[in-house]
What we know:
heterodimer; A: alpha+beta; Aldehyde Oxidoreductase, domain 4; 3 domains; 22 helices; globular; B: alpha+beta; DNA polymerase, domain 1; 36% helix
Amino acid sequence: MNAITPTSAISAELPEAAPLNLSRRGFVGGVGALVLGISLPGGSARAQGAAAAIVPGTRVRAFLEIRPDSSVLFRSPFIEGGQGIFTAMAQIVGEELDVEPSKFVVEGAPPGRDYLLIGGGRFTGGSMSVRRSYETMRKLGASARQMLLQAAATRLGVPVSSLSTQPGRVVHAASGRAVAYGEIAEAAAGLPVPANVPLRRPVDFRWIGKPVPRLDVRDKSTGKIRYAIDLKLEGMLHAAVQHAGRLGLEPSAFANEAEVRAMPGVHSIHRLPGAVAVLATSWWRARRAVETLQVTWTETSPGSVRVMPADFSSEAHMAKLKAMPGQGVAFETVGDAARAFDRARTVVEATYDAPYLAHAQLEPPSALAHWSQDGTLELWLPNQAPEMFQADAAKVAGIAPEKVIIHSPPLGGFFGRHFLYQTANPYPQAIALAKAVGRPVKLIWSREEEFLRDALRPMSVARFRAGLDADGLPIALQAVTVTEGPTGRWFGRQPDKVDSSTVEGIAGKVYAIPNRRVGQIHVDDPAILGFWRSVGHSMNDFFYETFFDEMADVGRHDPYELRLRLLAASPRHKALLEAVADLAGGWRRGPFAAADGSRRARGVAMASPFGSEVATIAEVSLRDGEVIVHDVWVAIDPGSIVNPAVIESQVNSAVALGLSSALLEEVVYEKGMPRARNYDGYPILSPDKMPKVHVRIVESGAPMGGIGEPGLPGVPPAVANAVSVLAGKRIRSLPLSKIDLKGSQG
Amino acid sequence: MELSINGSKHQVEVEPDTPLLWVLRDELGLTGTKYGCGLAQCGACTVLIDGQATRSCVTPVESVAAAQITTIEAIASDVVGQKVVEAWVTHQVPQCGYCQSGQVMAATALLKQSPQPSDADIASAMVNLCRCGTYNAIAAAVRHAARA
């Protein structure tokens, strides 16, 4: 609301356009006051005692500012990167506040205790945003509405019980009078936040559950949206870097420093940890200069930084993973798998693997750093976790966290790319460079530097062993993954415990197999590991669901029928599997001849990622050894939903990324360095490879699950299972592009 | 060097081999055109040069000194561009949005050349990369814009 102490003064300075499009005047001119003011409700500049009293998600004024024209500025705890979260927030809050979602302007909230809605912390990831904040955001909207009603009662001199609301205004039916929210917002903001406000009944929802258009689509269709890479400050210098080809080396001598210094627009040359930088008057000049610089790279003293061994190769690391013996540390144990094998008639064994993956989001990483004269540091940077970046930037800068002001612009794709990954984030470099020259610095990593320093989806091996009874039904299953997970890497690993991100998708399966053991063998990975859309599920569901088809084949069962049979006691999953088959016009495995004469097959897979349930069918043919995916059908049950259009978009997107990984993607390391440095060497899914995607949303009423990631994990196994039918051999390794299918009939 | 961009003349002082992309972004503040790969792989930098979809990241600025350059910033003042934008909104095409300036420019160039493109025309013209996988929505929106 617009009457909060500092913001009433500041809101007048807010550009008239949406804050997503900070006007040049507002951005360049008003940096200090504007930004500090907005960061105040977050509490970072307040006393610790006051901050500790804040219950996240309850202080209306930290989130909402109702403007005189009754439009609403909402500060989102979650960052927008294409997943539609800003629109979802507007739907949820607007539903209870009684403001149309289209009247919302949403921006990423600054760091602050008010926004710590994910288990006492804050990040945008794990497909958690809506499901973890849904009730809180409804209550917030309802509380604000109650405050507006109270303010209107005072204004009109009538009992609050005689008032109601219509979108954007309070109505006194008896007298026919109405007051726009914008007229009473200031008075309402001074009222206490009520407790225990009633919430709207779901049957009365107007926007929750509806395909409300996303708020940012027009700006994104006209080039008006501004990402971190687009921002500019007065007096700013542009920075480009050249990293050591191999992580851990440090720059020593420059062979041609004078030549580079004399290049057009060059301001200065800098040594950074593991990199060199050039500052110049434009990024192109900076880049050309830094890439001209001839640098001698030298080994560092042991233990000082993470060093990639000079002889490291992904091929050798894969061989190492495959050679690790044993069953590892148990994560999930049901029944007694070891003993059940004694009763098994047949044993099925297979070893699977999946490669490192890059995020390859289209917006290269950047960071804009500005040191103010008062010693505060302002940063604009793509990030999925403002408080974590604030804390780390403070450490890097050697100042207190409250002296670091973090701005979180819309993300040009993220997929897990923008968490804290040590050497994979540009902002420490930008902070150092801005400090060194006493001017704002915008650093952009070239696409080549991004491929060199991205945090990778780990490589993994999974060994399976299943025992089938006389009817060909699985009675025992042992699985062990051999890998290191990103969760353990960045949030602490206990040697006697399994990092759940290494087994999710293999553990937690719903099929009725009475004896199971799932474990992990940890192997240190020298690469910088990261979270990649759907994390462990991105490969573990491929491992499990393709092995499932191997069990079915050996046991002489149709893989769809066997799944149905093993889900007999789980109505939610059985119904979902039947739903996807129905969506696909019925299950048939093939091979069969399609109308265009191609020989096709279908594969099916189930997944239980991020609180949602998903069933996927893919229809595939082979042409000259190339895999053609024609259709993908996805039935998704997130329990209950906020925006079906966003879900359909997210499933399309997850199918594209899952298919891209299954068909094409693999980061290859040789001699401690990645071989590919751009999309020419690391192809991602192109439009000609995009299948038709058919989505059915099932609302089972189960607790709300995630949306951004769950559509992905079922795609690689559904495709691989279909390819196996056509190729007549099992697919146990990704990507498919490296498997010779030329001899297989198309 | 004088450039003709979105119907206006602009004076820029840059090395002649500077890619047009960086002249637009850093010299002229036209940041709607995006840097994605720098190698003409992704198409995020697509602009129109005399009406042709062109990847500005590999286009030396000196080569377009005599040309009419159109960027996403002028899309709303172009009749075909307007149709494309409206179709993009109707079909809710963008997700993260980063590639969409280039996609909209590519679609506009296509429809200027082939007002009624076949599916094959669309497939051969709309080749820019999108990591969010909005390809089906893009194709649907192009078909929609052609009908509009």
